[in-house]
Specification:
Chain A is mainly β and 112 residues long. Chain A contains no helices and eleven strands. Chain A is globular, with a radius of gyration of 14 Å. Chain B is mostly beta strands. The chains are: A mainly beta (112), B mainly beta (113).
């Protein structure tokens, strides 16, 4: 089945730095979603993207739906300690009755 | 508008007992999904239900696991005769229809002694 690739598994940045994550697939997706999971909690939807080329912001977060429809990017600007967590990409592959597919997540650590 | 509510947040069972995990979807959402997550791992799809119907149970073990979403009341994930390997966090998500983003609860952390 379709897979979403997120790498590296972990990222370490300094507070105040910007960070970019990407999510890739070998097949076309119709919708891209980015979630964040804090320790001990459930994933929270950050941004949803529905159209190729779409660029959407949510505060310091910006995400883009890749033109090829096979990738998406999430950028976090001016990171702060509470940005730590696991960032999952997810998406609906093209085709009828497609199932939401998740990447394995990237664990972000922010050094104060 | 309340989010997805899961209870209990933590559940401890001895081997051989039954575990029942409950999930109340967001108001207006009739589609419910259950996922399992092991430490340091991603979300593994288990089952997708829409009121009174199981739509997709391809991720659920054939034995000991069952799920339901009755006309009234929460969705239930039931694990019979639990074993140590069932220890994990179980998350429920809901959506208004099948191709809309899913919203997650805070999970039930199941520990098997």
């Amino acid at each position: 089945g379709q897979q979403l690739n997120q790498s590296p598994q972990s990222m370490f940045i300094q507070e105040g730095e910007d960070v970019s994550m990407n999510c890739t697939s070998s097949s076309i997706f119709n919708t891209w979603l980015w979630y964040k999971q804090d320790p001990g909690e459930g994933p929270v939807l950050l941004i949803a993207l529905y159209k190729a080329g779409e660029l959407t912001s949510n505060g310091r977060l910006t995400a883009q739906f890749g033109i090829t429809r096979k990738d998406s990017f999430l950028n976090i600007s001016a990171s702060i300690p509470s940005d730590v967590g696991i960032y999952f990409c997810a998406g609906f592959p093209s085709g009828a009755n497609s199932k939401l597919t998740f990447g394995k997540g990237i664990t972000l650590s922010v050094r104060p | 508008n309340a989010g997805v509510m899961q209870n209990p947040r933590h559940l401890v069972r001895r081997r051989g007992q039954e575990a029942r995990l409950r999930c109340s979807p967001m108001k207006g959402h009739s589609h419910v999904y259950w996922y399992r997550q092991l430490p340091e791992e991603g979300l593994k799809f288990m089952v997708y239900l829409q009121k009174e119907n199981i739509i997709d149970e391809s991720g659920m073990p054939k034995e000991r696991f069952s799920a339901e979403f009755p006309k009234e009341g929460p969705s239930i994930l039931r694990i019979q005769q639990v074993v140590r390997g069932d220890s994990a966090a179980y998350f429920c998500a809901s959506s208004p229809n099948s191709n809309q983003p899913q919203h997650f609860g805070d999970g039930t952390r199941l520990s098997i002694l």
